[in-house]
Each structure stands twice: as C-alpha cells, then as structure tokens.
Amino acid sequence: MRNARGADGEARPTHRQAPLQPLQDHLESSTYETFERDATKYTTYMEAVRRALLDRHVEGAGPQVVMVVGAGRGPLVRSSIMASMACMVPIRVYAVEKNPNAVVTIRHLVATEGWGDIVTVVHRDMREWKAPEPADILVSELLGSFGDNELSPECLDGAQRFLKPGGVSIPQAYTSFLAPVATHKLHNDVRAYKDRAHLETSYVVKFHRHHLLAPNQPVFTFTHPSDTLAGVTDGRNARYKELVFERPAGSPPACMHGFIGYFEAVLYDDVLLSTRPESHTPGMFSWFPIYFPLIRPLPLARGAGRIAVQMWRKCTPAKVWYEWSLTAPEVLPIHNVNGRSYAAEL
Question: Are residues 337 and 224 in the same domain?
C-alpha cells in the first residue's frame, strides 16, 4: 500500500514514495483516512467474509469467531459485521491493533455503533497476543503494492496460530507480478539524487508516462494458512525467481529503466483484489504499482529480444528485502545487496 491524498481529496501518490512500514511505524490518521475511502476494497472484503461465513455455518453452532488482525481504525470490522448481517450468520469479533491512536478510534467506533456485545478491541501486536479462543476466520489487509512487501507473510505466520483446524484466512493467497518498463522521467527523478541508495530502492508510483516492454509474469506466491507454523527466522518466506521476457518481432527500439510490479490476491474462493492490469479491481485505488529501478538505463534494439531478471526476497530475523539483477540482454550488478539501501524492518 498504498497512496497519499491531496488537499482536494483526490487520491494520488506523492510523486513516488517508498512502501509503508506498518510494523516499524505507526500509520498516520491521514493514511488511514485514504484507505477507508476505498469503498470498493471493503465491499469486496465484505463479500469474501460473507461467503466464508455461509460455507462454515452450522445451524445451532453459535456465533463464528472472526479475528481482524491489523484492524486499523475498524473498516474491516465494519465489513465483517455487514457480512454477518447480510447472510444472517452471527459472529463474535476480535479487533487486534498495535497502533495506540488507531485503538482509540476503533473503541469509539464500537461504542458509537453499539457493537460492544460482539466486538472486543485488543491493543496488542498480533504476533505476540494470546487469543482466548480459536478463530473460524482470520481477516487482514496487510498487502502492499507487490503483495508481500509490507510483511504480510511474516505477520500472518505469527497470527495463524489463532485459527481453528480448517479455519479460513482472508486473504487466502496473493501473487506478485513483474514487467520490464520504460519510464524516462521517473528514472531521471531517481537518478538525480546521484547516489546508489535511491537507485536500489523500490517505489510506490502512480505511473503516467510509461511503456511496458513485455507482458507481466508471476513472481512470488504466498498462501494462508501456510503448511507450517514457521517464522521468518528459518527463511521459509524467502523466495527466488528468474523471469525471462520475450520482446516480439517488430518491437521498436526502446530504453528500459526498470520493472513495474503488481499483485493479485485471492480473498476467498473466487473473490479477488488485483492491481494487475488484466484483472484490476474496478474502482479500487488503495494500491498503486511498485517500481524497481535499474542502476542505469538499458537501450534495446529494434525487433525481437530477450530480457531476463533474477528476483530475490531475502529474510533475516530483523528485516526483509528484495534484490534484483538483470542478466539479459546485458548483465548488471545485483541491486540492494543485503538490503543495504532499503529493507522492511521486522
């Protein structure tokens, strides 16, 4: 995630921004306000929760337990309650949030809406909280512009212990996608800093003038609940992928400046959220694409050609970062080695 909002209320990013670090930093009220205006996202979440409740409902079994982890100021709590009302399946909700300012707001929301009998607000980090009962459904909105770049895998690894056997995580899975891109102005803006760090940092950007040099391809996929209760310390969330993009015959000359990234998330069953152009969720604006620069622009000749890139997602107990390296048509050095320029802190 995500984007910023201008003074006129229009959703827009700052020209470019590093991805948020919600584990390290408490998000500001203005950031929450931007997320909460995205009605499409929360309507889609509501439909996913509604379907999950119906699929798990057993007559006479009592309320289903829904845990909203990273609850923010409460929009997913509202979506879950609306889903319960829509399908007439009772729920009991735990809203788990570590940001003290957001907790004040969500407690006020619960009191104002009269949800006190069904919602328990928990001011704790989801990775440390001990739940009083197991959950039927675990709901979160921890996705970043590249899917996993705001540490959703690490957070949900820690939270999936809350689930009953056979319990449901919403989202169930997400996949990142990558494509080579020509974006002269954006690359020049980054290069103007005249240092390596800015050319080895990924940025959330609302692309305007750019040209895709080949169709996007899938990169990393994460599923929840995962097969094992393992954390980042064992490297289970590390990933590696080599992608080969083929430029078709007749392609005009171009200059490649880096890679543009998207994500596609399965919330539940066939309920999707996506920033990928082929499947973009209509009307959703919470996420913009992500940009991975190259340390120098690479001219591409006219006609068919091969573009190859290696992508790594690397992990330690303290941080998670990406490294990337172009291997065709030329070999460039590995970018962001050991997270020297940018990493997401745990």
Answer: yes
pLDDT for residue 228: 58
- Residue range(s) defining the domain that contains residue 187: 174-345
pTM as predicted: 0.91
Residue of 27, 28, 34 lying closest to 12 (CA atoms): 34
> According to the model, what pLDDT value does residue 24 have?
62
Same domain? For 163 and 178 the reply is: no
- Are residues 88 and 223 located together in one domain of the fold? no
The pairing of beta strand 271-274 with beta strand 254-268: antiparallel
Per-residue pLDDT at 7: 33
Q: pLDDT per residue over 219-267, tens digit each?
A: 999 999 987 554 444 578 999 999 999 998 899 999 999 999 999 999 9
CA–CA gap between residue 242 and residue 327 (Å, rounded): 9
Is the bond into 171 cis (omega within 30 degrees of 0)? yes
Instruction: Point out the residues of the chain with pLDDT beneath 50.
Output: 1, 3-14, 230-233
CB-based contacts of 312-317 (< 8 A; 24+ apart in sequence): 312/238, 312/239, 312/240, 313/148, 313/220, 313/237, 313/238, 313/239, 313/240, 314/238, 314/338, 314/339, 315/154, 315/232, 315/233, 315/235, 315/237, 315/238, 316/232, 316/233, 317/232, 317/233, 317/346
Q: Which residues are catalytic?
A: 141, 150
Per-residue model confidence (pLDDT) at position 236: 84
SS3 call for 254: strand
What are residue 138's DSSP bridge partners? 67, 169
What is the structure's pLDDT at 29?
74
Quote the CA–CA distance of 117 and 106 in Å, as a whole number: 15
- 166 and 178 inside one domain: no
154 and 184, same structural domain?
Answer: no
Point out the domain boundary residue: 153, 172, 191: 172
Task: Quickly list H helices, 126-193.
Answer: 152-159, 184-191
